[in-house]
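Q: what sequence does this backbone want?
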């Protein structure tokens, strides 16, 4: 990973982002949020389509079953993403309280959120076993201390926050969506763009998580996050340069 290259691109986007017309800027941000909500829930086997996701979030789909778990997952994920953006705007560093609130929002009308598991669990398809619930409590303490005191760069920190949290698996359900949100929390807190891991990348994504959980090697996942971050930055740079040409 060429971290300085990412920093240079990030700085360019931050410096020139306002050159993008407001309506185009809003469209770009809304399109990202729509795709992110869809793919982060689809990775967890939610069957609602991208088109249906848009109709749900815009309120255009009126004949929906409001007791549907899948619909609540979409609505809740959108609210949780809005929540982390507000926290970042208030310059709040990621903390245990914020993570618990993210989980509470994700689980609204589904199950009680923000409560750590008191049973042992296994993850279907995973090649590792999460720690027992009592071990998880101790590992969480170390996790929260490390993300608070970490000297890692933001890409490394985002990758660690995601994979370590998911390896601990502190909640009964919703760990994947929570881990992707707190990964983006770390990126956005340092001025980077949020990234979207797509449903079609699921197998590669899970393989990298398994690799970290088994070997402790974070580098492959760091490269995965860095590649996605560079893609988002490049997309923004293309829009900025297109706007610059249009105003000449």
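A:
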């Amino acid at each position: 990973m060429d971290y300085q290259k990412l920093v240079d691109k990030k700085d360019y986007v931050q410096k020139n982002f306002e050159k993008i017309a407001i309506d185009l800027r809003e469209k770009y941000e809304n399109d990202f949020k729509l795709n992110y909500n869809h793919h982060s829930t689809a990775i967890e086997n939610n069957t609602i389509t991208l088109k249906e996701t848009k109709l749900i979030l815009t309120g255009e789909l009126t004949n929906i079953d409001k007791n549907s778990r899948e619909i609540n997952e979409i609505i809740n994920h959108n609210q949780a993403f809005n929540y982390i953006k507000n926290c970042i705007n208030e310059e709040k560093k990621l903390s245990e309280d914020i993570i618990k609130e993210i989980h509470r929002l994700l689980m609204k009308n589904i199950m009680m959120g923000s409560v750590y598991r008191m049973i042992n669990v296994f993850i279907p398809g995973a090649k590792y076993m999460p720690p027992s619930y009592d071990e998880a409590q101790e590992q969480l303490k170390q996790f929260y201390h490390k993300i608070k005191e970490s000297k890692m760069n933001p890409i490394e920190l985002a990758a660690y926050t995601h994979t370590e949290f998911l390896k601990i698996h502190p909640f009964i359900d919703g760990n994947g969506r929570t881990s992707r949100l707190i990964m983006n929390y770390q990126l956005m807190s340092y001025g980077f763009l949020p990234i979207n891991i797509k449903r079609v990348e699921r197998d590669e994504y899970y393989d990298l998580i398994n690799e970290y959980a088994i070997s402790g090697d974070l580098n492959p996942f760091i490269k995965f996050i860095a590649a996605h971050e560079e893609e988002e930055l490049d997309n923004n740079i293309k829009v900025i340069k297109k706007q610059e040409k249009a105003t000449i």
